[in-house]
Design goal:
Strand content: 25-35%
Number of strands: 9
Number of helices: 3
Radius of gyration: 24 Å
Helix content: 10-25%
Length: 213
């Protein structure tokens, strides 16, 4: 129970009483992408799930997304439609691979190439009183990056990591586009306008009521 939940209810001297309304549902946001109307950043739950040799193209694509997806400076960054081709193994280079600080230097390094779409999204705004600033469904910029290159490597802890970027960022990004959304994803901010009954049913709120004598 929060401090507001425990707030005193009555005041005999003034003849008024106050009950505080708090929605526990708003404090339990478990989907960081919801505030952007987008899917959540990719999470690699098992980065050791690679047999002998290199990761599969599908695994590599997931590891690339894990490397870059996230929220930075209040913006959501998502790698989407990642396509990866894996090259032949080579030995760790003491000079060329110095930036792989956590690499297992005894394990092979795999060059990769491919493409991806980078979405950079702002928080969604949906205020009926200020429609000029509403950006639902158009709160992202999308960079369609081709000819990306990178590496996959194993860390000293046995985890696999893959990083792939494009030296030449898409010179003609698309602005005011919708974010990549997970199936059934919903914008948490929109609760305030269309899902009060659902939120009340799922929460255990106190009720706010002020009665004046």
């Amino acid at each position: 129970m929060t401090r507001l939940d425990r707030l005193a209810i009555s005041s005999a001297a003034t003849g008024t009483f106050v009950l505080v309304l708090t929605f526990s549902g708003f404090a339990q946001v478990t989907h960081p992408g919801a505030d952007y109307g987008a899917r959540d950043p990719t999470v690699c739950k098992d980065s050791k799930a690679v047999g002998s040799g290199a990761p599969s193209p599908q695994q590599a694509a997931q590891y690339v997304a894990c490397e870059h997806d996230g929220i930075r400076a209040n913006h959501l960054y998502l790698y989407d439609q990642v396509k990866v081709e894996i090259g032949a193994a080579r030995r760790f280079g003491q000079l060329t691979d110095l930036n792989l600080a956590d690499a297992d230097t005894k394990s092979a390094v795999y060059p990769i190439r491919g493409s991806y779409r980078l979405y950079i999204c702002e928080h969604q705004v949906n205020n009926p009183r200020l429609p000029t600033y509403n950006n639902v469904g158009k709160n992202c910029s999308m960079f369609d990056n081709q000819n990306a290159t990178g590496l996959c490597w194993k860390t000293s802890f046995g985890d696999w990591r893959c990083d792939m970027t494009s030296e030449k960022q898409d010179p003609n990004p698309k602005h005011n586009v919708a974010p990549p959304a997970a199936p059934g994803a919903r914008n948490f901010r929109a609760f305030a306008e269309r899902d009060w009954s659902s939120l009340l049913a799922q929460s255990s709120p106190a009720i706010f009521l002020r009665v004046f004598s």
